Records
---
Amino acid sequence: MIDINDFLSEPIRSGMVAIVGPPNAGKSTLMNYLLGQKISIVSHKPQTTRNRILGVVNDDKYQIVLLDTPGLHKARQPLNREMVRIAMESLNEVDVIVYMIDVSLPLPEKVEQEKNKEMMEQMEGVAAPVILVLNKVDLLEKERLLPMMKRYSELFPFHGVLPLSALTGEGTEVVVEELLKLLPLGPRYFPEDVPTDASERFLAAEIVREKVFILTGQEIPYSTAVTIESFQDDETKKMTTIHATIVLERNSQKGIVIGKGGKKLKSIGTAARKDIEKMLGQKVLLKLWVKVRKDWSKDERFLKELGF
């Protein structure tokens, strides 16, 4: 006879945590570190993350569902406004908020005051407890850290002001400990072997876009979208064939992405293929095309096609 209790597990600490903050604060790096694998794409350029990415940190005693969000900034273009909207909506859906800032670069006092004001305005009215994470402290002079933590703790009723290096992992254990104090008891949201709810198609497109960010000049990445035209698995050959299109806004950008003799596009494809093979655990045949869709970042219809 089947006992229903065999399917019920003891309550654990489980809940949703939004990682928010300004562009290039290290949000994606933190999530990837906590997951122990790469889910969110990363580059040194701001506004790399455009969509909300979900990652699941599993342990015998807890499950933390992380939401990596686009950077909070003053947005003017439709694409940027959608990115900020996605990030702000996440604040209303979670049990805890981790607000990350990069403290490695000294800022003029006026600029720092403006950024702190923006942060407090963004957190105003949120119901969930907020932990402030000071990232890149490994690049900070040690004597500056304690006064900085005290100063930030006086700005807003944070449930903690924690130093961190998302790149090296320094301080991540303390962040997890503080999160577990705030998360409720409950069931797991996802099976223990599920690291994300993102589809392989979506992640493949993100990987291609990451390589464009890394391998092209300043003006190109922000004018780039990637669509997956086909994604086919061949179980006999143990190979996945992917056809993807890099979409640009202007004809002048096309030659830059393709490069002389197609070298730049080949470099993008090779780098992306290696990461996709690592993700899928098998060989990948990646075919890339480049096309121009004039001012796509202002085209609300196309933005919906991209999932915004």
Note: The chain is about 35% helix and 25% strand.
---
Amino acid sequence: MKITLLGCGGSAGVPMVGGDDGAGVWGQCDPSEPRNIRSRSSIVIEGDDGRRLLVDTGPDLRSQLLSARISAVHGVFYTHPHSDHVAGLDELRAINRVIDAPLPIAANAETMAELQSRFAYVFQPWNGEGFYRPVVEPQIVAERQFVAMCGLGFSVLGQRHGRIRSLGLRCGDFAYSTDVDFFDDGTLDALANLDTWVVGCFQHDPHPAHAWIDLVLEWRARIRPRRMVLTHMGPDMDYRTLCDELPEGVEPGFDGMVLESH
């Protein structure tokens, strides 16, 4: 199983729009380190048969797929309805054209309702005469459910993300948990015996809706994955500084990073 980190930045990316010269706000990130350039968080999981599951459709989706040289995906799993995870849904029209079929999408009931409100046209029945808009086939999923999609089987993990619920997933010995600040014991138990865990970690200091470094290290001490990769990182998280400070087995991700797991 191959996992590509399309993006590993927070909702505003790095650099954030702004700056006295218009070149962006980098915070503590060194502009000369290319791995500090972060688009909005998303991954692709590719199974042994070559089919791919996309997790979230952020506003950078088109450029992410081109950069990663990924021409097609075969389904989408949504973690939650915030704009940095759904606003690129219109880019799925190109995927429809490549696979010449409607695209299955999975989300919990709350996220699917938000997608239907914001993108009602993509849920209209397809007439089979080409793709002039994205066309999707919705599937409602729930926490602790096992889902078969794109030739992959994965468990849906429940998470707290500030005032809302978000979803993670576990596929084999790999798990993805972005936009989270709390796991209940059931989810922590479901994350046991991982090989690779990609987990959101927005900054160094505590945050009301996102995990921070000390918190993810507490989770690691309980779960004990072989490898932990941080994602959804803000401008406080300089790549080289993190490489120097984090313990062995924990590392910052970067856009385009490729992982292998079982």
Note: The helical segments are 61-68, 83-86, 92-99, 109-118, 185-190, 213-223, 239-245.
---
Amino acid sequence: MTLLATLPDTGTFRLTGTGRWSSAFAVTELANASIAAVGVELAQLIEALNLAPSAPEVTVDQRLASLWFGYSFRPEGWELPSLWDAIAGVYETQDGWIRLHTNLPHHRQAALRVLECAGEPSAVTAAMRHWQADRLESEIVAAGGVAAAMRSRADWLTHPQGRAVAAEPLIQWTSPRTVRLRYRPQATAARPLAGLRVLDLTRVLAGPVSTRTLAGFGADVLRIDPPGWDEPGVITDISLGKRMAALDLTKGEDRLVFETLLADADVLVHGYRPGALDGLGYGADTRRRIAPNAVEVTLDAYGWTGPWADRRGFDSLVQMSAGIADAGRAWAKSDKPAPLPVQALDHATGYLMAAAVLSALAAAARGAEVPTAHLSLARTAELLAGLPKSADAPDLAPPADSDYAEETEQSGWGPGRRLAPPLRVGAEPIRWILPAARCGSGAACWPG
């Protein structure tokens, strides 16, 4: 049994639809292939579980796949909150450019402490002029914040972290073990993940995309957040199909609930930095003792080796670090950083994580040992940088009414419409039973 290692060959799925994101990089090609990876691995799982006599055909709609790399939900009669904090964005320094990511209050406070200025964009802009980009990046990170100086591709490839990431596999499989799959009589070729319990310990954005995808084929996804957690502007997009609960893992009673949930989980997906779960008392050995038969997939921002392995990061920051924003600047003939048109590193990594879960489940179904899968945004950036763009194609037109499903989704914030599904496995499209829900809106228990 061969575990997922890279993007699927184009001959393993059928492509429909037209349009392509305008970019220096093969963003639409990445969308097609990463979503197709989910379909190909799911088709193999259907065959491994004997839910069909052979692996069904996989179909990806290129237009819809591209649009799903953006925002999938359109509210009706109300507005989504802003995705970005007021001071998040790119700023010019003495010697270059830097990006601040300040959506979380403690990240915002860390940046302002270092800059020693008020929290208005004009004050931040003025303060930036007194700093060199690399030094400011280091100071903000040391203060517990997140920031990234813009580097060229050449600079990144010679940087110690860039070299470490380039040497890593796209999916790093480690610590193989025997996993006994729980019998799920409700699983069918149409809903092959029905009854699969997925414990989701992820935040913005790649991890939630992975678990949203698993929910779309029938998995019972339970996401656990700290009490009071929220992701304004994002959560309506990525809580689709999930139950959303809250637990404080520093409190004994909540820890007991969490351990009970983990013991009954079939899949654990988490996005904690290396060592973070260990700090909560849930290191790898403990997790395996509690849940010996749970498939595990995890991600981080900057890779699993090298000096930045434990650095916090987000898609927009990795684009700055890895030379993507600088290459986009040159391609666009701009004097400012030019990021990708969508957060493609997040979305592609999320779909690849879902595909890794499916690959591991198929291996277990065939009696093979199952390792833990590690992915990172930075390694996906290397994948994108080396991905060829297809022949000239028309630019992707903005979403139209016809791109959305006909039925209204009654989300936890109000009604809206969701983009039509981009993926079919056999005759069945990916589809969700539960609407998007607010953080902490559900009980911390498995259904049924």
Note: The longest strand covers residues 370-376.
